[in-house]
Records
---
Amino acid sequence: MIRAMAIFAAAAFQGGAALAETTAPTPPPRPGALSPFSHVDRKAPEPPPRPDDLLSYAPEAPSREQTLPKIEADASCRALLADASLVTETREPISGAGGCGIAAPVSLVAVVLKDKRRVEVAPAPVMRCDLAARLGAYIRETVAPATEFYGRQIKRVVTADAYDCRNRNRQAEAKLSEHATGGAVDLSAIEFVDGKVLRLADKTNDPAIANSLKQSACARFSTVLGPGSDGYHEDHIHLDLAQRRNGYKICQWVLR
Ligand SMILES: [Zn+2]
C-alpha cells in the first residue's frame, strides 16, 4: 500500500512539473526575429491574425490590425499611382507577425520632375501606396524646387528606412511603429549631380531651404520627427501618415 502511494505521489509530482512547464509564459518574439518578408499567396485569402500571436507581440496590435487603412485595396492603389511622375514597382503582399505587414506594398524607385528629369529614391523604400504617392509629390513639388538653385540638380533622395517590422525607435516595450505597417519612411539626404550632398538633419543648412522642407513636410504628413524631437531622429527625418483622432499632427523638427 505504501509502495502504491509512493508511486502515485511521484506521478502527481511529475504531472505538476509538466503542468508548470506548459503554463510558463512565452517570451514575446523580438522584432528582429520576425519574418517581415514572408509572402502570402495572392490567390488565397489572407488568414486573420491569431489572437495569441498578436497578444504575444504587443497588447495593442489587434486594434491596429483592424484599423489598417482601406487605401491598401489594389484599385485604390492603382488610382493613386497612375500619376506618371511616380516610378514604382509593386511588391508581393507582406504578412508579418504581430500586426506587421502591407496588403498592397510598392517601392518608390524614382520621381519624374516637371522638366522630365528623373530623381532616384534609394534605397527604394517599400511602403503603402498612399505613402509612396505622398512622398513622390513632396519630392517633386517641394524638395526639388526648394533645393535646386544656381544650376544644382538633384540626382537622388537617400532613404534610411521604410517598411520595417519593429516597434517605435526599436524599443522593446514601445508600441508598434508606423514603419511596421508601411506607413512611414525615413529620409537622410539629398545628393546632387555635382556630387554635393545636403543632409536633411544638418542644422547648418540654409535656414530658408530647411524651413521650406519642414513646413511642406508638416503639411503633407501627419508625423514629422527630426533633430530635437526625441533623440532618435538626429540624423534623419521621419515622415508618416499615422491617423489620429481629430486629425492631430506632430511636427517636431528643430532647424537650428
Ligand atoms: Zn522613422
---
Amino acid sequence: MATALTQLTTRKPAWLKVPAPGGPNYLALKHLMRDLQLHTVCEEAHCPNIGECWEHKAATFMILGDVCTLNCAYCAVAHGTPAPLDRHEPVRLAQAVERMGLKHVVITSVDRDDLPNGGAEIFAAAIAEIRRRLPATSVEVLIPDFKGSERTLRLVVAAKPDILNHNLETIERLYRLARPGGRYARALELLRRAKAMDPAMLTKSGIICGLGEEWDELLGAMRDVRAQGADILTLGQYLRPSGQHLPIARYYTPAEFAELRRLGREMGYRHVEAGPLVRSSYHAWEQVERATAAG
Ligand code: SF4
C-alpha cells in the first residue's frame, strides 16, 4: 500500500466524475442563499457534491463572512482582510434553515483571527437561534482552532451543538506546507478539551487524503484523533482547487477508502465516512444517525 501511495498522477479517475448541478432544489437554494445574503462552503470551496447535496436540501453554511484570515495551501476560500462582524447573521441563517425545513444543519466559518473570540459568540448565537425556532433540528458546527483558546472553545460548547467538528486536515509532517497557520498538536488538544467539557456531545474530525502523506502516517493521524475521544471521522480525496494550490500527490481508490473505513472502525470510531468525494459535511445527516445508533 505504501509504495502505491508515492505514485503521482494528474488524470482525474472516473470515480471522481459527478454530474453538473442544476436540479430544481439546487436552483431554489442558490436563490435563497443570495436572498438572505448567506455564504456556503459548498460554493466557496468549490465542493464537487453541490449538485447532490443541494438537491437533497443539505448545505453547509459558512458564517463570519467569506474571507479567511488563514491561507491554507489546499483551500479555495478567499483569504485576506475580512469584513466587519455581522451580528444579524445568526438570525438570517436560522431563517434559511427554517425555510429549507432542515432536520440537520452544518455551520462552519472562515478563520477570524482578527476578532478577540474568533467569532465564537456568533457560532453560539446561531445555535441558540436555530434551537429556538426548530428544537428538533440537530446542529453540527465545524469550528476553527480559536488559536488554542480554551475559554473561546467553551463559548461554543456551552451552546450545546449536537456535533462539534474540528478537522485535523492533514498529518503532522505536512502542516508547515499545507496549513502553516495551524498547529497539529493544537487541533488534537481542541478535540480532547471539547470531549472533556461535554462528554455527551459527539466530536468529529476529518483528514484530507492525497496531499503527500504515506499510508502509515495517515493511520497514525487517525489514531491520534481517536485518542482524543473523537466519535466520527471523515476521510476524502484532496482535489486541487486551482493551479495555485498544492498539487495532488495521489488519488486513493474506492477500495483503499473502504480499507480506511474498516481500520477506522477497528480503532473505535463510532462512524467513519470515507470515500473519494467525502467532505466533512457529506451525508452529515446520516452520520449523526449512525454515530448515535453505534453509541
Ligand atoms: S459535501 Fe458539504 S460542502 Fe460539499 S456540497 Fe455537500 S454539504 Fe456542501
---
Amino acid sequence: MNNLQNPDLNRLNPMSSSPLATHLAIREMVLDGMQLASVKDFFRGDLIHLSTYDGIIIEYTDQDYAIKLVSRIRSHFDHCLFLKPVFICKESGSISGVLDQNTDGCIHDLNHLYQLQVPLKKLLARIESVNLSGNQSYEEQVLFNFLAYIHTRDKEDISPFIDKSGIYYPVLSDFTKRNANQKHFIALLEKMEKDAYLQGFFHSATYVCSECFNDYLMYREVCPHCHSAHLRSEEVVHHFRCAHVAPISDFKRSDVGQDGLECPKCQHQLKHIGVDYDKPATMHYCQECNANFQNYAMKAYCCSCGHDQEVEHLIKKELKRYSLTDKAINALHYGRLHSRDKSNDAILEDTLPWHLFIKTVDFEETQNSHGQSNIVKLHFNDLSSLIKQVGEENRYKIFNEIIQIIKATQQPFDFRGVKFPFVYFSLLNTRQSDAEIISQRIVFLINHLLSDNLRLKRVILTAEVLPMNGKSVETILSGIPSAI
Ligand SMILES: [Zn+2]
Ligand SMILES: [Zn+2]
Ligand SMILES: [Zn+2]
C-alpha cells in the first residue's frame, strides 16, 4: 500500500532540470516500471519525442491549449502516438466534452500518479493486443486507427460527439479542424459499415452540405426568380361579401383605426375573421426584382465551403453510433483490413464495368455485318459544374437516373458503359437515322430531368451516334485519355 501511494517518482530525465523552455520540456516519471512523460498543455515540441513513453500526462493550464494538444496526439498518423494513453492533470474540477472523450482519465496532482496505475496497465494490455505492424494504404490506415482506438478503449459503441463546432468521431476527425474533415470521415464510416467492420445504430439525423458534408448551414427564404433573400411578406385577405381578394395593406385605412380593415372594392368594414373575411394565403414580394409569389424557394449557405444550395440538394445524413464487429476485431489482431475493389465507375447500376463494355462493343461489332448497329456517346460538357451543383454524393444518384432513362429507351439486348464525363450506350439493330432520333429524344429527357426536377442549369449535353463500322472501340478509346 505504501508503495502504491508513493510511486517511484524519480525525475529521470535530465531535461526536467535543464533550462529548456517550458513549452518544450518533457518531465519523465516512472510508475511501477511504466515510463510516463508529463508535458504542459502548451507543449510545442515534436510529438515524436513522446512516442516512446507508455503514457502521456498533460498538465492542464487552459482548456483550448489542452484540447489542441490532445487533438494533435489523437489525430497523429503514427500508431505509436494516436493510441497512446493520455491523462490530464488538472488541479481542480473535472474535464468534460471533447477533452473527456479523447483522454483516458484525470488526476488532480502529479503526486497522485498511483491512481493511474490500474487503468494504464489495462490500456497497455489492450493496445498490446492490436497488431500495429501491418502495412496498408493511407485510407485503410485511417480506418484501422479508428477501429483500434474504439477497441483499445473498451467502448461498447461510439457515438458522434456534437457541439457548437459540429459533429465529430474520435480519431477519425481532428476535432480542432472538424470542418475540413467532415466529408472524409462520414464517407469512411459508411464504407466501414458497408464492409461489415462496424455495426451502425441510429443516433440522430441531420442535413449536410452536398459539397463538403458540413452541417453549419445558414438557411433563408429566397425569391424563386432572382434568389434574393430581400423579401417582404404580406397576408392576403378575401372579403366574403364581394369576393375581393387583395393584400392586407389594401384593406388598411388610416381613418378606420390601426387594426380596422375596410374593403377597397365595396367599402364595407371587415370586422370578424371567419365571418366577414378570411386570410387564404401569404404573398411574398421580392424587394430586388419586384416579383411576387406564394411559394418562396429555400436556400442553405454552407458556412464551411461557401456552397450555396437549394435545400432539396442538401444531403440527409444519419448520424450513427457504431460498435465493432467480430470482423473488425479479427482485423485488429491480424494487423490489416481486407480492402475491397476501389473502382468508382462500376458503382452505377445497369452499366457494364468499363473493360467489359469495351469487350462487348468489340464483340458486337464482329456480329454487325449489316451495319445496322450504333453506339451513342453522351458528353456532359460541364460535368464538374454539374457535380459542384449537386454534390459528389448526388452524382451517382443522378447518373443512375440517367442510366434508367437510357435503359428504358433501349432494347433488352442493348448495354451501357460509363467513363466520366462520357456515357455510352448501344442501339443494336437500329438504323443510323433512327439512332439519331432516339439519341436526341434521350438528350431531351435527360435535360428535362436535370433542369426541371433538379433545377440544374448550365449543363451542356451532346450526343454523337457512332455507327459500328469496325472502328468503334478505337474511336471510343481515342476520345478518352488513358481510358483503361
Ligand atoms: Zn427577386
Ligand atoms: Zn368587399
Ligand atoms: Zn459546404
